[in-house]
Structures are given as structure tokens and as C-alpha cells.
Design brief:
This protein is of the alpha/beta class and about 400 residues long. About 35% of the residues lie in helices and about 20% in strands. Catalyzes the formation of acetyl phosphate from acetate and ATP. Can also catalyze the reverse reaction.
Length: about 400
């Protein structure tokens, strides 16, 4: 079975084509600047060189058509006929309370996705657009939706409800949803495989640390708490997002700076975080470089980031009543040696002992704790696309 995995953003499209017989990636690529000038597709077929195709790409229909054309191309294609694509798996950001698992897409599912647009106005519309385009370009090919929020639907009400009048949960669905669920699911299962322990009995904290960042407590294979909330703004300090803050700051700033709700939304989502504190960049690599050169604001931004992650690890260990493993993943988690060391410093009381030599690793699976560390610490590169492909295969095989 060959499964095409699509991740449609507002102006971008990531894709991978999997051969599910051995889970190899036949081709992968990225369409950039959809609906913007200077748009292009970068296509990498297997172990062959990357190909860049520049073209006007006004919408997702054109983008997906270009992906299909690239996959079928005489020189850099990897399939001979469209019929070789047996299914399409879509990353969908927000499933709300409607979806606790990946699902075969039908009219009822599409209605539910459209009903969730107000919960993810930036993400769900391009996800939906990608599904509709595939229906036109690949009629009859089954499509599966895999939701960022689904993994967290196992949280109990005491973990997902906010301390506001209950009627707002009932009327508007205001609650903690959590995100990055596909990534947290993949690395938590993978660490159990590496440790040789049953997933159903393990207590794991997964740290998905990238430009967007979240921490999840996974007890017995189920998400019991996660740092992102109603939106991806809550929780950790991130690249441009503020993370946790006193809600009273919002009306205070609105009054002092004559800001509108849209201004506040832009400030907290796009001008805060590492960028806002450091004044340098939302890219942790730039901030780390400035910090190493003595920039105090950059140093402070990194300290806040590490401290927030450390607090969540401590809180989640307490919430689960124990801890077997901590996993670092995503861009910062997989590649920043100093960030991992800074987060783990002071957690020895939990039984975490970092091995500095083992921690000197980037972008590959590695145990970074000492042999006598009670709590094992791993770096595991995430693979959300593979999870989507596996879920798609499992669902389609049952048809």
C-alpha cells in the first residue's frame, strides 16, 4: 500500500509518499508561498537530488496538482500511475471534542471539521481545503484525518476544564484541548520500545520543543495533561508566543496602550516569547548565539524557556505519581544540547541524572541519562508523518 501524507498550512504544503510495506519514504517535499509571489515546490524523490520547481501557485488546488505531477514525472517521479496511491492521510490541527481517534473522512466528518473552524481559524480552513482538493483530483481514493488534538481527548475534566463559569464550556467548548498530539504519541510509544517496557504501564513526560512547544504527561499510554490549552498559546514560552501569563495583563495593556482584541492577539501570538523577551529572534539558535556573546536579554529568554519546561516536568511527575522517562523532541528538543542540560539541571531529586557526553548529540535517537539514572532521558526525533501514514493504512485496510 502507498499512502500520501499531506500537511496543508495557510501558505505551505508538506507531503510525503510512503510505501507501507516497509514504511520507506518514496518521496517528500514542500510547497512554499501558496497565494504569494515567488512560490515554488521543493521535491525530493527517495535518495535522488532535490528538485526545485518555481511556478505561480495561487491556491491549494494548484499546489496539490503540482505534487501529483512531481510524483508522476518521468525523471524525478516515483510512481507511474495515480492508481498507485491507495490512500491519503491528512494532518488536521483541531478535531475539538468530536474526534478522539483518526477517522475515515466522509460528509459527516467534513461537517464536524467545518464546525471546528472557529476553534482553529488559521489552521482548519487549509486542512479542509486540502481534503476537498484531493476529492476532486483523486476521486474514490479513501482519505483519513489525523488530529493534533485527538491524543489529548483522554484527559479527565479536572485536567481540561478552566476555572470560569461552566456555561462557557457548554456554550462555546472553552476547555483545554492540547496540540502536537501526533508527535507526543509517536515519541512516547517509541521510548517504550527503546526501553523494552509496556506502553500501558509507563509514566512518560514528552517535551515537544520547537518554535511551538508543549509538554505532555502520558500515563499508561494516555495523555492525562498537556501544557497547551484552548489554543496553542498557553503553556511554555515559545518562539513568538507568550505562554502562561496573568489574564489581567490583557485588559491592563488594552487600557494603557489603547489596544484592540486583534492587537492583543497579535502581540501574544507573534511578538512575544523568545522574540519578545530577547528582542533578537524567535529562532532559539540566534538567541543562544547572542546569549553566548553576553547578551543579557537573550540569556534571560533562554532561562525563562528552560525554567518553564522544568516546572511542567515537576508538575506532571507529581500529577502521575511517578516517572519512568523524559523525552525531548522537535527542533530545539532534538538539537539544543544546552537547552536539554538547562532543563534537567536541578531535577536530580526526581531521579534524573544527565550524562554530558551522551547529551552531546543532535537529531538522532539517543539515551542521554546515566546508566544509574532512575528516570531515563531520551532524545527521539519525532515522525508525525509516519504516524499519519500508519493510521491511514490501518483504517483503509478495514474498508
Amino acid at each position: 500500500m502507498k499512502v500520501l501524507v499531506l500537511n496543508c498550512g495557510s501558505s505551505s504544503l508538506k507531503y510525503q509518499l510512503f510505501n507501507m510495506e516497509d514504511e520507506t519514504v518514496l518521496a517528500k517535499g514542500l510547497v512554499q508561498r501558496i497565494g504569494i509571489d515567488n512560490s515554488y515546490l521543493e521535491h525530493k524523490p527517495g535518495d535522488k537530488p532535490k528538485v526545485k520547481i518555481e511556478a505561480e501557485i495561487p491556491d491549494h488546488h494548484k499546489a496539490i496538482q503540482m505534487v501529483i505531477d512531481a510524483l508522476l514525472h518521468d525523471e524525478h517521479g516515483v510512481i507511474k500511475d495515480m492508481s498507485e496511491i491507495n490512500a491519503v492521510g491528512h494532518r488536521v490541527v483541531h478535531g475539538g471534542e468530536a474526534f478522539a481517534d483518526s477517522v475515515l473522512i466522509n460528509e459527516e466528518v467534513m461537517r464536524a471539521l467545518e464546525a471546528n473552524i472557529e476553534l482553529a481559524p488559521l489552521h482548519n480552513p487549509p486542512n479542509i481545503a486540502g481534503i476537498k482538493v484531493c476529492e476532486k483530483l483523486m476521486p474514490g481514493v479513501p482519505q483519513v484525518g489525523v488530529f493534533d488534538t485527538a491524543f489529548h481527548q483522554t484527559m479527565k475534566p479536572h485536567a481540561y476544564l478552566y476555572g470560569i463559569p461552566y456555561e462557557y464550556y457548554e456554550k462555546y467548548g472553552i476547555r483545554r484541548y492540547g496540540f502536537h498530539g501526533t508527535s507526543h504519541r509517536y515519541v512516547s510509544k517509541r521510548v517504550c520500545e527503546l526501553m523494552g517496557i509496556p506502553y500501558e504501564k509507563a509514566k512518560i513526560i514528552t517535551c515537544h520543543l520547537g518554535n511551538g512547544a508543549s509538554v505532555t504527561a502520558i500515563d499508561g499510554g494516555k495523555s492525562v495533561d498537556t501544557s497547551m490549552g484552548f489554543t496553542p498559546l498557553e503553556g511554555l514560552l515559545m518562539g513568538t508566543r507568550s505562554g502562561d501569563l496573568d489574564p489581567a495583563i490583557i485588559p491592563f495593556l488594552m487600557n494603557k496602550e489603547n489596544m484592540t482584541p486583534a492587537d492583543i492577539d497579535n502581540l501574544l501570538n507573534k511578538k512575544s516569547g523568545l522574540l519578545g523577551v530577547s528582542g533578537i529572534s524567535n529562532d532559539s539558535r540566534d538567541v543562544e548565539e547572542a546569549a553566548s556573546n553576553g547578551n543579557e536579554r537573550a540569556q534571560r529568554a533562554l532561562e525563562i524557556f528552560n525554567y518553564r519546561v522544568k516546572k511542567y516536568i515537576g508538575a506532571y511527575a507529581a500529577a502521575m505519581g511517578g516517572l519512568d522517562a523524559i523525552v525531548f523532541t522537535a527542533g530545539i528538543g532534538e538539537n539544543s544540547i544546552s537547552t536539554r542540560a538547562g532543563i534537567l539541571e536541578g531535577l536530580e531529586f526526581l531521579g534524573c541524572k544527565l550524562d554530558p557526553e551522551r547529551n552531546n548529540v543532535r537529531g538522532k535517537e539517543a539515551l542521554i541519562s546515566t546508566d544509574d539514572s532512575k528516570v531515563k532521558v531520551y532524545v527521539i526525533p519525532t515522525n508525525e508523518e509516519l504516524v499519519i501514514a500508519r493510521d491511514t493504512k490501518e483504517i483503509v485496510e478495514k474498508l
